[in-house]
Amino acid sequence: MTLGVRRLLSPAWILSHLLVASLLVATVNLGFWQLRRLEARRAYNAVVDARAGQPVVPLAEALGSFEDGATPGDLRYVRVQVSGKWEPGAEVHLANRSREGVAGVHVVALLRIDDIHPGLGVIVDRGFVPRSLYLAGDRSTWAPALGELAIVGTLDVGRLGERGHADEVDRIDLDALAERWGVPLAPMWIRESASPGVDGSTVWPVPVPVADLGDGSHLSYAVQWFVFTLIGLGGYPLVLVRLARRDPGVA
Fold first, then answer.
1. Spatial CA neighbour of 184 closest among 63, 54, 74
2. Residue 23: inside a domain, yes or no?
3. Contacts of 7 (CB under 8 A, 6+ apart)
4. How many angstroms separate the CA atoms of 135 and 187, rounded?
């Protein structure tokens, strides 16, 4: 055994070997974790795509399925139609949203749907407004139509723990909005997917897509982690060989 090899078996170097082995195990696991996330993302995309292809159903029919044991997750992204009237002044704005690289907000409003249940309301994300337009303060630019109207959109679930200031919030918290406006709300909210305006001009707010159905960056991240693993597997032994050859003496 050369002195160089013996040196590489010293306690300090054994600790180094164990550390590198641990890092390699970690990078392999991170690579497979990203592949699992990719698989989950594709399964999610398949659900969204399938539900987008289903016929539009009345909101009352969709919500009625709760009585048959359905959960909000079962109804997420189901397309619905509902008629009602916008509640004047009942509007908040989801902050820190963007569209095609432009910063803005989502306009979230209360639609009264007395035909389903007297006094009941449903929260509707009407769409995107650029922040410059929002800060200009002229809300007539995106004011909803008056009177009875029908909207089409997709159901989605709320998130608890609203944070924000005044009429700017960070999420759609149905409990917080029900308390804010003193109105009982449907257990899910609607992302509007149809909007009036047929002359080709931009009508604010602009409906937002249900979800990004791309694969994301999971595959590229997985490849990166596996490349790091290969570099470690090939590079670390080469470093050890070079260190061992620096002291060719024989014990």
1. 63
2. yes
3. 13, 243, 244, 247
4. 31
Give me the pLDDT at residue 250, please.
40
Parallel, antiparallel, or unpaired for β 149-156 and 189-192? Answer: antiparallel
Q: In this structure, are residues 120 and 184 in contact, taking their beta carbons and an 8 Å threshold?
A: yes
User: Other C-beta atoms within 10 Å of 1: how many?
Assistant: 9
DSSP 177-218: HHHHHT--B-SSEEEE------SSS--SSBPPPS---S-TTH
- 102 with 180, same domain: the answer is yes
- Start-to-end C-alpha separation, the chain: 6
Higher pLDDT, 187 or 146: 187
Q: Contact at 8 Å (CB) between 127 and 106? A: yes
In a domain, 168, yes or no: yes
Residue 164 or residue 30, greater confidence: 30
Is the domain of 181 the same as that of 220? no
Same domain, 231 and 134: no
CB–CB of 153/194 below 8 Å?
Answer: yes
Q: Which domain holds residue 28?
A: 3-42+215-245
Residue 110 has pLDDT above 60, yes or no: yes
Q: Which residue matches tokens 């924000």?
A: 164
Backbone phi, then psi, for 9, in 5-degree steps? -105, 10
Residues 167 and 227 in one domain: no
Q: Are 215 and 38 in contact (CB under 8 A)?
A: yes
Number of domains in the chain: 2
Return the higher-pLDDT residue of 194 and 181: 181
Q: Is the peptide bond before 205 cis (omega within 30 degrees of 0)?
A: yes
